[in-house]
Design goal:
Layout: E1 18-19, E2 46-51, E3 55-58, E4 67-74, E5 78-85, E6 93-99, E7 104-106, E8 116-123, E9 127-134, E10 146-150, H1 154-161, E11 168-169, E12 182-185, H2 193-201, H3 204-218, H4 224-235, H5 245-251, E13 255-264, E14 267-275, E15 283-291, E16 296-302, H6 311-322
């Protein structure tokens, strides 16, 4: 979400390492200790299918600790998976944001060398399937992917450990050119859509929009507790009125898509559209013209959620919001 207002003293925003998570449950649940003898060891590539809010306990080769997966959220092509190490109240919980088919290499000890690789294979309406592969730290493979840490709590401890047997085993950078935005094309195209979008995705505008789309999809799980704490950290005041969580969640896009219209003479109009719960921030966000012959992008115009901003300001907004190391960065207002 972008907002124009008087700037605050925020020259060097620090990344949030621990986010406060508020989980409301009807009744307190009893902590269940998991005997190691009943916990499987992921000694090789293993597929794990989980239901939403379901859990799975496991161990890793040469590691005496017991870990638990907790499926926090599922999207059409994404999920958020918590990785907790017992005793949970003594160890931070890692929340891993996964995109379909893109492996995340993590360290369950919060080290620099990965010891576990997780890949999201598929998602359903309330389930997800993962490929889990143990990695030897002796290989020195660095960590990668989008993950952040959550402050453990008694309530979260109870939620994660309540159903550990009811499951069946079966870093984003602005320089990235990964394609994320879904594209549709109008009739009359004389050049394949894939070739047109390849040109766009290699442009500064395509790179920026693809990165923003990834950020929006990651932050779709933002909640009020984390949002309030993050807002106070960066704005030095409580979010109220237009800045409260209700309004922020209504006006923050959940994804971007694009469409192509043929203008004639190998020129194409590409429109990036944002989708959000609010009509105010749903619709065209960026319009650009591509001359396919020369490969140049011209006539750029930001509107909608980016109304009144130029490329440099939208670029700076992304860098600021992506630097907030939790799942509410896209919700925090950027001051140009």
């Amino acid at each position: 979400m972008l907002a124009k207002k008087k700037p605050f003293a925020r020259k060097h925003p620090q990344r949030m390492r621990y986010a406060i998570v508020g989980i409301i449950i009807i009744a307190a649940l009893v902590y269940i200790a998991i005997p190691k003898s009943s916990v499987p060891t992921f000694a090789q590539l293993t597929n794990v299918t989980m239901s939403l809010t379901g859990t799975k306990s496991f161990m890793l080769p040469g590691d005496s600790n017991v870990y638990v997966f907790y499926l926090k959220a599922v999207g059409s092509n994404s999920s958020v998976l918590y990785v907790a190490r017992q005793p949970m109240l003594s160890n931070p919980i890692m929340a891993v944001s996964l995109q379909l088919g893109k492996p995340a290499k993590i360290s369950t000890y919060n080290g620099t060398s990965a010891n576990l690789e997780i890949t999201l294979l598929s998602t359903g309406s309330n389930s997800a399937k993962f490929a889990v592969l143990p990695v030897s730290t002796s290989l020195g493979i660095g960590t990668s992917g989008v993950f952040y840490f959550i402050q453990p709590s008694m309530l979260l401890n109870s939620v994660i450990y309540q159903n550990t047997t009811n499951v069946t085993i079966v870093t984003t950078s602005i320089s990235s050119t990964t394609t994320s935005v879904t594209t549709t094309a109008s009739s009359g195209n004389t050049i394949p859509t894939a070739q047109i979008m390849q040109e766009i995705n290699n442009s500064v505008f395509g790179i920026l929009m693809n990165n923003y789309d990834t950020l929006y999809k990651k932050d779709i799980v933002c909640n009020q507790s984390v949002y309030n704490a993050t807002f106070i950290k960066f704005e030095s005041t409580k979010p109220e009125g237009p800045s409260d969580f209700h309004n922020a969640s209504l006006n923050t896009p959940t994804a971007l898509s694009s469409s192509i219209s043929y203008l004639g003479g190998k020129k194409y109009l590409i429109i990036y559209n944002s989708t959000s719960p609010s009509k105010r921030t749903t619709g065209p966000a960026l319009m650009i013209t591509l001359n396919f012959t020369s490969g140049t992008v011209t006539n750029s115009s930001f509107t909608g959620v980016y109304l009144g901003l130029n490329y440099s300001q939208v670029y700076d907004a992304y860098n600021f919001q992506a630097s907030i190391n939790n799942f509410c960065g896209a919700y925090i207002p950027y001051v140009p």
